[in-house]
Fold this sequence. Notes:
Number of strands: 12
Strand content: 5-15%
Order of helices and strands: HEEEEEHEEEHHHHHHEEEEHHHHHH
Strand order of the largest sheet: 1-2-3-7-6
Amino acid sequence: MSQYxxxxxHDAVAYAQQFGGLDDPSELVSAQEVGDGNLNLVFxxxxxxxxxxxxxxxALPYVxxxxxxxxLTLDRARLEAQTLVEHYQHAPEHTVKxxxxxxxxxxxxxxxxxxxxxxxxxxxxxxxYPQAAQQLGHYLAQTLFHTSDFYLHPHHKKAQVAxxxxxxxxxxxxxxxxxxxxxxxxxxxYPAEIEADVAALRDDAQLKLAVASLxxxxxxxxxxxxxxxxxxxxxFVAEGSLKAIDAEFGYFGPIGFDIGTAVGxxxxxxxxxxxxxxxxxxxxxxxxxxxDIQELWNTFAEHFQALATExxxxxxxxxxxxxxxxxxxxxxxxxxxxxxxxIRRSVGLSHVADIETIxxxxxxxxxxxxxxxxxxxLIVLADRIDSVDELIARVRQYS
Length: 399
C-alpha cells in the first residue's frame, strides 16, 4: 500500500495518469494547485493543449488555513469520497463523479468541472442561474430521502450510520456553529466595530437555550447521510447544471441541517448584496434570493413527499400523513440551523465572500450586523415560523 505523503504538482500528474480514466494517460502533462478552501490540496490536471481534464484532491493532516497546530484526521477523505459516491447513486446529475479513491494517501481523482463556476461567486456578481435553486432542492430530496429510514432497511441504515461516523469533522461543526460565536473564543473573527453586537449574543439566554437545542439535535438525530457543508461555495453551476462537491463533513445527521445551511448561504448573499451594488440596485437581487429560497424548499418538500409516497419501505412510516408531519419538523429544524449559519459566518472563524469582499468598511459592518440580527431572530423564532412564506416575511421584517 502507498504511504501518505503530501502531493506535489508532479505527484498529482502521475496519479491522474494512472487513475484518471483517460484512454491515453500520456496526454496529461501538468498540474496547477487551485485549492482555496480550509482543508485540502486541489490540483487541476491539464493535457497537452492546456485543457483541464481531471481533478486530484488530497486531504492534509491539518486545517490548511490554521496550520499544523490544528491537526485533522485523514479519514475525512474516505468519508468525503464515500459520501459523494453514495449521493451520486441517487442524484448523479447533481453530484461530482469520483473516478478513484485511495484511503492511505487520502487522495481522490474526480470529474473536472472547469465548464462550471462556483455558485457563490456567481451570486456575488449578479449572475442568475434560473434552474439552480430547483436543482439544489432536487439533489437534497434525492440524497436525503434515499439515505433515510423512509427508504433504507433498519439493518442497512444502522450499518451506514456506523460507516459514516465522522467525529473530528463533526466536532468542527459543533464548535463553529454552536459554541464559538456565543462565547469569547480565539477562533472568532470579526471587526471591533461590531463588538457590541457580538457581546449581545454571549449575554442572550433565550438565544443560547435555542442554540443548545439545535446542537443537541445535531448530536443525536441520525436521520440521513448529510453533505454536511452544502453552501454556495461547495456548489458548481453552469447553464442548466448544478453539481455538489466538497463533502468531507458528510455524516448521518438531522435532515434540516443541510436544508438550513443551503438557505443560510442564500440569505448571507441577501445580506451582502447592498454592499456590492448599493441598496437600491441590490433590491432585485435580494428579491431573487427570496424566490430562490422559496423554490429550493418547495422543490425539496414536494419531491421528498412524492418519494415517500412511492418508496417508503417501513409500514409505520408509510402511514398516510406521517411524511408530511415529518417535513414540518424538518422545516423548523432548517430555520434554526439557517440562523446558526448566518451567525457563525459573521462572527466565527470562516467567513463568506458575499460579505467579506465588501470594500466599504461601514457597509460591510452594516451587512454583518444584519446577518447577526437576522440569524438570531431565525434561531429564536424557528418553531413559530411554519412555512417558507413566513420565513420570507420575517426576512423582510429584519431588513
